[in-house]
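quick one
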Amino acid sequence: MSLDHIVTVTIGGLTVGMIYALVALGYTMVYGVLEFINFAHGEVFTVGGYVAAFTLFALGVSDQMSTVAIIGSLLLALVLSMAVPAALGLLVERVAYRPLRGRSRIMPLLSAIGVSIVLQQLIIIVFGPTPITMPTLGISSASVSILGARIRVLALVIITVSVVLMAGLTYLVKATRIGKAMRATSQDMEAAEMMGIETNQTIAFTFVVGSALAGIGGLLVIMYYGSLKFDAGFLYGLKAFTAAVLGGIGNIPGAVVGALVLGLTETYGVSMDLGFLAWFVVAGLLMGLYVQLVLAPKKRLQHISDDRRTPGYERSIANIYRLAPYLAVRTLVVERTDALRSVSARHAVRLMLGNLFLVVTAAVLFANGSSRIDTRWQPVIAFVVLMVILMFRPSGILGKHITEKV
Amino acid sequence: MGNVLELQGMSMSFGGLKAVDNLSFSVRENEILSIIGPNGSGKTTTFNVISGLYEPDSGDILLQGESVAGLRPDQVHERGISRTFQSLRLFGNMTVLDNVLVGMHTRTKAGVVAAMLRLPSVRREEAAAKAKAQEVLAMFPGRFSGPRQSDPAFSLSYANRRRLEIARALASEPALLLLDEPVAGMNPMESREVMEQIKELRSRGYTILMIEHDMKVVEGVSDRVIAMDHGVKIAEGSYQEVATNHLVVEAYLGKRGAGTAS
Ligand SMILES: Nc1ncnc2c1ncn2[C@@H]1O[C@H](COP(=O)(O)OP(=O)(O)O)[C@@H](O)[C@H]1O
Ligand SMILES: [Mg+2]
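structure w/ magnesium ion:
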């Protein structure tokens, strides 16, 4: 893989990752406050894209217009693709979710799925079933050269806009009065209420912010890919939801991290030849071995209480953690020392099997060195990564937002 | 007037259980009124109804002569009733300072747009709120100094979390402060310290309604005491009067006799 290829793929991955992030934030913020998954969120994203494209068409934007007029139209599209989804999010919350709050958890979930279907149908009714397209503009195809790679200007715009929005959101949540109210509400709604926070308003605001971000996501997608279908929100919503879970649902920075991991994995997964991928596996294996051979025994040794600190005991523990399952088993069978009560042979066996698996994977990948994974496998790769990460970190990369009631 | 709070025949039941039954009492300006009573006698429920968490089945609640019954909790808070919780309910993932700032929510008003634009008015309000929060935290000397204010609330010691709840409740300068077992779980030294602080609050002009099990604290700080049992007020008066009242003695003894004392 050459440098320009790496740059192309990385920026491509960051671009889709950022779009996933914009949508994922809405899922995770709503979950943080209501512990409820707003399945209609994907459609809000689609509406953002449709509104943007419709606005630009209505204004008759084309390259014949002056630069100022084009920028002005784009800004108007930006504002509308935030405002309309925000209003929609507000309405959906008010009409479909709030009346069901406090009921059994399945009811708002069903309501959300219903809203999602209704919104898709409304998009078809208003705009028709054919995909809506962007007016062709020069900037859509403009590109620059970075480290020998040709990068679309729009990709850079998407990354920049997203970073700015996320910085703004962080500031909003961390530092402002309403942000503190949001955090308080998400941790203990009743207590927040008794401390003077109007929680209904705060929840509504959460929907507004999440929907506006998703709306911008829709605008960016339609600018980047040129067209959007009425059911696009399903796949984007699913990916973004996956990203939110991956990062730790309810956790705002987690949504961004999860989305970037997902975006990069998808893009790298289908653009690397397998021989290159194998090196990643080898790197992972080496890192894992370092942890198992050096760090884990060290840590384990620190935890031995003083009265059991005999050299033989320490050695057996260190050995067991040096990936010697047979030693573990032998000690278990033959010596039956206390050592094995505090060290699990099963754990050692599991580590051993894990390493074997990685070695075999690397070997297979090396053997198929020059072939590539078909692009159609992209969602499968994303799903596998999700499963693997959640297997090792069930609460997501950055951990779930746990409502600690102290 | 002189009455900050007036409960008039307030009743509250859960299903068939009458948790509070026709309860009337008033809290006078700048006094400390304590509620005692065996576990399950309806004390916390009384607080929950006053704070607007539940709407009373009947009766009225007057704050400085105006009814607050049926208002939402945030509206009650805005009118001037703030509280602490028997089982602590801080915002664990938020910093010490932010917890107090949340307590000032109804006393600040920066809107979203203004806050995002960092308008001078917002900056002034934020600075004033922060200064006020620090002033409140300074009421607990040495407990929340300097860098500790940016620690998350869950990392504090138990006693400090109790103190922080009081600070959060004080941040809005409430006309009435409700303290639900403020020294529960504290050691004798810590409870003596909190007791002094409660008295200090009275000398600063606060009016306090307090639920407490620790009789030393009740005796030490209360101007008047109310005893409840099974949701009913069974005695009212000075600590001496209530503590020696035969109904009160029986309520506690009866519970003990039945083996259900706390
Ligand atoms: N939300 C509720 N739902 C049902 N029962 C409740 C609720 N809150 C309190 N109770 C009941 O009301 C009675 C009084 O409880 P409480 O006010 O907490 O007593 P105290 O604070 O005096 O120990 C208890 O029997 C309790 O189980
Ligand atoms: Mg209680």
